[in-house]
Design a protein that fits this description.
Keywords: Membrane, Transmembrane, Transmembrane helix. It comes from Olleya namhaensis. This is Branched-chain amino acid:cation transporter, LIVCS family. With 105 residues, the protein is mainly alpha-helical. The chain has one domain. Helices cover 83% and strands 0% of the residues. Helix 1 runs parallel beside helix 3. The longest helix has 32 residues. 17% of the residues are buried.
């Protein structure tokens, strides 16, 4: 089995972006929970949109690279890391909406 050559760095980049997206999203949600400041909710929504776009672009790049490489294990792991952010982001969104509804009441 050939070693995977990541000439473009898309594997490392996608993993880094996915992990940083998770960490920054978690921090924004934590600050919103602790302060109940709606500015953090707005920041979270903007961040969610930007992270979705960036992660989607990287996911497409990984899928294209997956179809042309022989060594696909690293690509599968990177794809799964990015895809794991989807249910996490949805859960964070639901938590933020719950916090927001308690602020309004």
């Amino acid at each position: 089995m050939k070693a995977l050559k990541d000439e473009t760095g898309i594997i490392k980049t996608s993993r880094l972006v996915a992990i940083l997206s998770f960490l920054f999203g978690s921090l924004i949600l934590l600050f919103f929970y602790l302060t109940e400041n709606t500015l953090f909710m707005l920041l979270g929504m903007v961040f969610l949109f930007g992270a979705f776009i960036l992660n989607s672009i990287l996911l497409i790049g990984l899928l294209l690279k997956y179809s042309e490489d022989d060594a696909q294990k690293d690509l599968r792991i990177s794809i799964l890391i990015i895809l794991a952010n989807i249910p996490i982001a949805y859960c964070y969104y639901q938590i933020a909406m719950h916090i927001f509804s308690t602020i309004i009441d």
